[in-house]
Amino acid sequence: MKKIVVIGSLNLDIVAKTNHIPTVGETVIAKYGGQFQGGKGANQACAIAKLGGDVAMLGAVGVDDAGDYLLKGLAESNVNEKNIKRVSDEPTGQAWITINKEGNNSIVVLQGSNALVDIPYIESIKSIIESVDIVIMQLEIPIETVCYAARLAKELGKIVILDPAPVAKNLPDSLIADADYIKPNENELALLTGCNADDYIDGVQRLAERGAKNIIASLGEKGVYCYQEGKEPFHKPAHIVDVVDTTAAGDSFLAAFALGLAKDMSIEASIDIAQKVAAIAVTRLGAQSSIPTADEVAAF
């Protein structure tokens, strides 16, 4: 099985579950509140490890209780967290998440220590990138770091998987071209390409014209649309489940997809597993706490 490294964010998630997401100036009473280990990068690393993968996490946390909590969670999930740096200049990243009764969310993120995942840090852990086969990144760390790490990974012959979230409207074409796989959802696809959010086929085509090789468009209840360079695109319907919280759905999907590739599975088979993992995750509250084990996926 191929080795994976995730370069990205770690956040303390502060969650409130309400009947509806408040509008400007409105105060609502939460039905539930809690703190969870999160951050897109950490969620993905945690999911890969829970599903049985060999994964290391690279990023930054503050010298604070939140940083201790996040590192502890990764270690307990069997993620190699030894090369995550601790910084005193910024607090650990935080995310305030409001979830409505349908399971949809609204998120405000304080970047904090994630902003210090810089190019000198990538150079300092170059040997880790050299030692793995697959490199996964998202956009909760500085975009120049993501671009630099993607180019380095390609020069080292690694498979690069990009989760373009939170979406950057002016995502460089060079980064799109350096990614072997890119996984936008329908809203990210619209923001990246200017397409109508409902016309994901047009969006995928526009992204391909910018250099994307393999596009895995996750469409929520509409399933997944996959474009592969030189092959016929295909669509996979979604699993129908009772949604509780969509917070880690995309992260769980991407992690399981990457693990499928690490096991030398086809793109189609990797998507099948990823859809099962995401379907289970959205039936549970929280980010890393919602991620299923390999046995739970097998029984789904």
Could you write a compact summary of the structure shown?
It is built from 11 helices and 14 strands.
Element layout with pairings:
Elements: E1 4-7, E2 11-17, E3 32-38, H1 40-50, E4 55-58, E5 60-62, H2 65-76, E6 85-87, E7 93-99, E8 105-110, H3 119-124, H4 126-131, E9 134-137, H5 143-155, E10 159-162, H6 173-178, E11 181-182, H7 186-193, H8 200-209, E12 214-218, E13 224-228, E14 234-236, H9 249-262, H10 267-281, H11 294-298
Parallel strand pairs: 1-4, 1-9, 2-7, 5-6, 9-10, 10-11
Antiparallel strand pairs: 2-3, 7-8, 12-13, 13-14
Helix pairs in contact: 1-9, 7-8, 9-10
The biggest beta sheet, please?
5 strands, parallel
- What is the typical, i.e. mean, pLDDT? 93
**Relative helix content:** 25-40%
- Look at the helices and sheets and give the structural class: alpha/beta
Instruction: Provide a count of the helices.
Output: 11
Order of helices and strands: EEEHEEHEEEHHEHEHEHHEEEHHH
Strand content: 15-25%
Give the terminus-to-terminus CA distance.
Answer: 23 Å
The unreliable regions are: none
Shape annotation: globular
Query: How many domains would you count in the coordinates?
Result: 1
The total count of strands amounts to: 14
CATH architecture type: 3-Layer(aba) Sandwich
Give the C-level CATH assignment: Alpha Beta
**CATH-defined fold name:** UDP-N-acetylmuramoyl-L-alanine:D-glutamate ligase
Give, in spatial order, the strands making up the sheet with the most strands.
4-1-9-10-11
Rg, nearest Å:
18 Å
